[in-house]
Amino acid sequence: MRPRSSGAWTSCVTRPARRAERPDGAEGRFPRAARLTRRGDIDRVFKQGRKVVDRQLVAFFLPAPEGVTGWRLGLSVSGKIGHAPARNRVKRVLREAFRRCAPPPPPHDLVLVARAGVAPEHLADAADALQRVLARAVRGGPERGGPERRGAGGAEGAARR
Q1: Segment 82-91, tens digit of pLDDT
Q2: Tens digits of per-residue pLDDT, 102-131?
Q3: Is 122 part of a structural domain of the chain?
Q4: Residue 156 covered by a domain
Q5: Burial category of 52 from C-beta neighbours within 10 Å (exposed 0-12, middle 13-18, buried 19 and up)
Q6: Sheet strands side by side (includes 50-53)
Q7: Is 112 helix (H, G, I), strand (E, B) or coil?
C-alpha cells in the first residue's frame, strides 16, 4: 500500500500489466514442445551428443528420440556470466534466436552453453553465433573452428617423442 496524493492508501497493483505486442506477430512464449525440460534429457545430450565449439557458445547436438517432431532446446548459463538479470537476458536472447532461425530437419536435441565473458547479449550476436554453430553441426566439419592443429600433445604426441 502506498499513499495517494490525497493522503488515502491504495494498492500498488491497480490493474494487470498489458503484454507488449510483438512486432513480428509471434506468440509470447517459447513452446514446451521445443524445450528440453528434464535434467535426464539434458544429461543425455551432454554425454552422448556431438560437441561444437564457437567463440560465444558451446553446443551439444544429439538426434532426437522417436516421436519428437522438431528441434528441442536446452540452455546452460552459469553464474560466471553475471547476476540473475544478466543470465536471464542471455537465455531470453538465445531462445529468441533459436525460435527465429528454424533449424533444418531432421530433429535434434540441442543444448547451448553460453561462454563466460563473451556470451551473446544482443539478438543479432546470438543469431550469428547460433547460425555458425548450426552450420558447422549440419555440415559435419571439424568440431572446433579454424584449422586442425598438428603435433598436439596427448598419447599420439608422446609416442612420437
Answers
A1: 999 999 999 9
A2: 777 788 899 999 998 888 889 999 999 999
A3: yes
A4: no
A5: buried
A6: 50-53, 57-63, 108-114, 72-76
A7: strand
